[in-house]
Amino acid sequence: MAAGRHVAIIGAGAVGVISAIEALREGHRVTLIDPGEPGGEQAASYGNAGWLSSHSVIPPAEPGIWKKVPGYLMDPLGPLAIRWSYLPKALPWLVKYLLSGWTEARVEKTAFALRDLLRDAPLLHRKLAEEAGVSELIERNGVMHVFPSRVNFDNDLGWRLRKKVGVEWMELNADEMRQREPDLHPRYTFGVVVEEAGRCRDPGAYVAALANHAIASGVTHVRAKATGLRLNGDKLVAVLTETGEIACDAAVVAAGARSKQLTASVGDPLPLETERGYHVMIENPESGPRSSMMASDAKMVVNWTNKGLRAAGTVEIAGLEAAPNWKRAEILRNHLISMFPKLPKDIPPSRIKTWFGHRPSMPDGRPCIGYARASRDIVYAFGHGHVGLVGSARTGRLIAQLLSGKAPEIPLAPFAPERFL
């Protein structure tokens, strides 16, 4: 595969835009295809919690989670909710999801793979932000996890596996936590700080800045919805869009939760699902954390952004078309106020912003990164689930390496699309 190919990248989210930058760096001509505004509210990148958590190596499904499924079905407002009406369609994905976390060995395999993908992510993002002229949006100052007790931490399989894959952290007792976070509710008595991690001050603005940098560097942006891929034998001829064909030599499918139709069009029916997520943001808050943190009991990330204090989390399995359940955002707000008692309970609605979007998720918590079966001219880059923003920096580098026929910088077997085909 020679440099100088015309590469069409479908999707202008974090993965697609960084792939465009890296492909351009490899000497390819790049067209970025997306009907929406890069970094706009319609994109999963926009609503990301903003964590650059290079230690987020644990997939959502862990051993024994099958016991909780009845509760998920009965509680539409729990941390993981499944809408009854969507259950028949989601069932094949849910079975694969449960099986992927059936044993500790399976979860450990994913942890090692994700560690390779996410290692040094804050540094990689910082370099990209500097190139795009927005270095202030990326901070490498660690993140904190807080627990009601040390027992909650000790019983968490995730932390045992993080240690196994090489993640290091600093432990805090109740007094040390209070010195660092005086506004945090005293029910939290144990914490850990992962100093290698970082945060993004405004994910939407960051992706928009990267897209502007890519376009200024020579990437062509076509505002259109891609509907398929046209092959001549095993050679890619064009990307099909609602406004016509775009001739190209190679294509990258990075359309997030909407990638499934595109892979199916070339014979790869991959089990991609949307884990619908919500966030709530308080503008000009009276209180909050000094550092970014995750509360173990609320399963929620709290992060300062340039626009306010953002709380993000929870998962809803209900497909791409169902209307949002805004009560889930209210729960995030209530958790946030509970964590920081100095926040008033009657914050004016005008200061509270809510968001809803679609995480693209594979059942085993690992993205699809690799070639299509029908043609090595087509590369897949989607399904990052909860690690889309943090994982996008290295994913973009890997995609450029695959487009140029170079050896990838990390083993890609754990991310191969063929594992589900």
From TrEMBL:
Protein name: D-amino-acid dehydrogenase
InterPro entries: FAD-dep_OxRdtase, FAD/NAD-bd_sf
Gene3D superfamilies: D-Amino Acid Oxidase, subunit A, domain 2 (3.30.9.10), FAD/NAD(P)-binding domain (3.50.50.60)
UniProt keyword list: Oxidoreductase
Residues covered by the FAD dependent oxidoreductase domain: 6-402
EC number assigned by the record: 1.4.5.1
One GO MF term: D-amino-acid dehydrogenase activity
